[in-house]
Amino acid sequence: MAAEEAGGVSRSPACLCVLCGLPAAGKSTLARKVLRTAALHGWRATVVPYDDLIPEHAFQTRVEEDGGNLQEIHKEWKSHRQAVLQCIEQFLEKPQLLAELPVRCQIDSAAWQRCIRALLQPEALDPSQAERAPLLFLLDDNFYYPSMRYEMYQLARKYSLGFCQVYLQCDLESCISRNQSRSKPIPTEVILEMVKRLESPNPQKNSWETNSILLNTTDDLSKCDIQKVMELISSALSNPLSPAEDNTEQKEADRLKCATNVVHQTDQACRRHISEAMKTARENQVAPKHMKSLAAQLNESKATFLHNLRRQLLQEASFAQEEDIDVERVVKRAADVFDHEKKEILLRIMNENS
User: Taking the CA of residue 118 as centre, how many other CA atoms within 13 Å lie in the half-sphere pointing to its CB?
Assistant: First the structure.
């Protein structure tokens, strides 16, 4: 549907701005500063904070059971993210439905109402001008995979919105330190895991990520940083996306989808290999401390292996759609490579145990 057909959007330009980076990299701080500056520009702006919108239990389940059934956790987490996307789209369709959420929506209703109330009832704007004021959504989340960001790009293109991305680059030590000073810090292990998974915007590889900038947020944000972000958003508002005339973007989306499927199936195969290794170790009466070390090394190896596999798949130009490749063969080949790594780790641990 074009912007002209979406209720409310046709009256004013709108932009989806993705803020991505490690936990505690400064995304929320940047969002607050941009909100204040946007008000001075006469824009209607709001932050879409995934941490507030998605129920806390979803985060806890993902952390506490990360060594368990990853498939179920991934599905639950993905469904919550899809719910946020669905609510944003419903607002673009019918912005007047302030108090309503899609049926069986999984996000926090109160948090969502706070988000959209800032757009419908901007305190800094005259009511007569507010209806035509530009709309700005600041999407505050880690967005560590390109596929997560691409969903937002697709939504912007569907409704002819502006689209841009700000990647907040912050060193690991600073992120961990900032996180520990929070009233409700997340486990450090989550940040360490995020480092392995995070793939920053890459305009050279993904043409849809062209409208992106990088901010170094290890130090405090400067006025120059805020100015860069505002210029990026202004450009996006002035140059809304339009439906692609060719299938280039669709091919990129297909490649992302297929890569995700291959990595998911490989993950399940790797988990079976890890279970076999742990069983072998127990049968050989490996000491508890060595069992713990074995589990840690195998999971570390698996995480690194899957991360590298995903990157390799996305870099292969010929890797496009599932029907174009033998997914089962690719998964088996990848699992065999990990099986070799598993055997080396198991042998090393058993030698240490002797």
Answer: 21
Give the CA angle between residues 215, 230, 38 to the nearest 5°. Answer: 125
What kind and span of H or E run contains 191? helix 188-197
Q: How far is CA 263 from CA 59, 101, 114, 266, 272, in A?
A: 22, 33, 37, 5, 14
What residues does 45 pair with on adjacent strands?
A: 136
CA distance 57 to 162: 33
Dihedral of CA atoms 25, 26, 27, 32 in degrees, nearest 10, equals 170
Non-local CB neighbours of 294 within 8 Å, separated by 6+ positions: 277, 278, 281, 286, 345, 346, 349
- Give the span between the Cα atoms of 50 and 139, in whole angstroms: 8
Cα(27)–Cα(49) distance, integer angstroms: 10
pLDDT tens for each residue of the chain, 354 residues long: 444 444 444 458 899 999 999 999 999 999 999 999 998 988 999 999 988 888 665 544 444 444 444 344 444 667 778 888 888 888 888 776 554 555 456 777 888 888 888 777 666 566 666 677 899 999 999 998 888 899 999 999 999 999 999 999 999 999 999 999 998 888 999 899 889 889 999 998 888 999 999 999 999 899 999 999 999 999 999 999 987 655 666 667 777 777 888 888 889 889 999 999 999 999 988 888 888 898 889 998 898 888 888 888 776 644 444 445 667 778 888 888 888 889 999 899 888 887
**C-alpha to C-alpha distance for 70 and 52, rounded to whole angstroms:** 23
Measured between alpha carbons, how far is 267 from 249 in angstroms, rounded to an integer? 27
Q: What is the H or E stretch that residue 188 is in?
A: helix 188-197
Length of the chain: 354
